[in-house]
Amino acid sequence: MARLNTRAPVLTVAALYxxxxxxxxxxxxxxxxxxxxxxxxTKGLGSEGLITSLTLSVLIGFATVVLGLLLMVPTMVAVxxxxxxxxxxxxxxxxxxxxxxxxxxVAGVTSVLAWQQDLAATPLYGTFQALINPDFPLILVIxxxxxxxxxxxxxxxxxxxxxxxxVLVEASRSLGASRVQTLWQVVAPNLRQAVTGxxxxxxxxVLGEFSVASVLGFRPFAxxxxxxxxxxxxxxxxxxxxxxxxxWGLLLLLTALAGGRxxxxxxxx
Length: 269
Prior knowledge:
Number of helices: 13
Number of strands: 2
Largest sheet: 2 strands, antiparallel
Structural class: mainly alpha
Order of helices and strands: HEEHHHHHHHHHHHH
Strand content: under 5%
Distance between the termini: 38 Å
Shape: globular
């Protein structure tokens, strides 16, 4: 009972902390001199660039999550099983994006992209052009993958510490499974919650990131919102509410997919 009485004030304060700003933003978007109006939302959905920029952000977010997981899951498994002495080194490298400011990171990326002028007569020029293609800028995927490493590392590290990975892998190998089969059918299911957690944090980071995309001259949803806010504040806040709704929807979808597969696996076993 005492524990319940202690939790209630904490949960109430936490709910107010998150819900009051959202409610205030929502009221700002519908408050009108003549009463309540949803014009900011109806007008926003038809605004030029909204759907395009939102779609671009979602695609970049999913590409970042996929690339990050392809890099981190095999690396973390290899370190856990074969190279435990490198754990501290890998951790330090993955935490570096928290130390290096995004502006400093994007300044270095800009310097590298400037090399394309000197490579105009070489095959590498086409590679640079593909990296900065405004329809789908791969350079943003690469930079965001680097920025998401701390979230992926912490989530996967916690998941690996929660299971006896060595025993699982040895049992799978003794039953004749290949390394790829072991990674896909044994290791991945046991890390599903950790993978989902890292993917959720990475996706949320990408959808809200502004500075890198703005400096590099691209226009995902976060940049579009800031540009819209320069002329129409209500439209910008309404777009932010839409972004919040889309982010929540994607996160709930990822969580539901992971939870559904986990329950299916338990029933099968």
